[in-house]
Amino acid sequence: MRTLAILFLLPAVVYAQSQTPPADQAPPAQPPAASPQAPAEPTVDETASPQLVGQVASELALTPRQAQGAAGTLFALSKTKLSAGDFAKVASAVPNMEGLLKAAPTQDFKVPALDLGKIAGGGGLGAVAGVAGTLTKIGLKPDQIVKLAPTLVKALQSNGGAEAAQLLATALK
Fold first, then answer.
1. Is 153:168 a contact under the CB 8 Å cutoff?
2. I want to staple 144 with a disulfide (CB 3.0 to 4.6 A). Which of 32, 73, 76, 140 is the partner?
3. Could you tell me the sign of the dihedral formed by the alpha carbons of 58, 63, 67, 68, in that order?
């Protein structure tokens, strides 16, 4: 009986072993899946408003993406602070304002403000303090946040005129 059982099992074992390739003939391992790459950093010319973004990026040592997001954040904040007519004046002085607004990270203006006055030695952040948390999320440092509003107002004045710059400065106080 044992002999009979061995005769039936032996072909099954031999067949199973013949189906497994030797280690040196094993199929090649699958290459690792490609990791998702972060989107490439845009150049200043690829941003929503190159002249304005370029000036902010240069003066604050920001990447074009950071400068675009920061400008969009402050313009979005000013949109909540100004009347529709006054914001329209600011928007008309900024090429592709809609693109800048879209580049701003999502934000909640009701989030408690960071106390950057103590951190960076710069008081009087005004309304910008309310979006400081958003600005830190895009990589701005406290000293850059403190200088952002005056830099943006200056850039707007040199690119779009005194009235729009004054309205923006008022909104960001």
1. yes
2. 140
3. positive
3-state helix/strand/coil string of 144-173: HHHHHHHHHHHHHHHHHCHHHHHHHHHHCC
For residue 3, give the 3-state DSSP assignment.
helix
For the purposes of burial, counting CB atoms within 10 Å of the CB of 79, is it exposed (0-12), middle (13-18) or buried (19 or more)? middle
Question: Which residue ranges make up each domain of the chain?
Answer: 44-171
6 CB-near residues (< 8 Å, 6+ apart) = none
User: Has domain 44-171 been given CATH number 1.10.490?
Assistant: yes
- The CA distance from 72 to 54, in Å, is 13
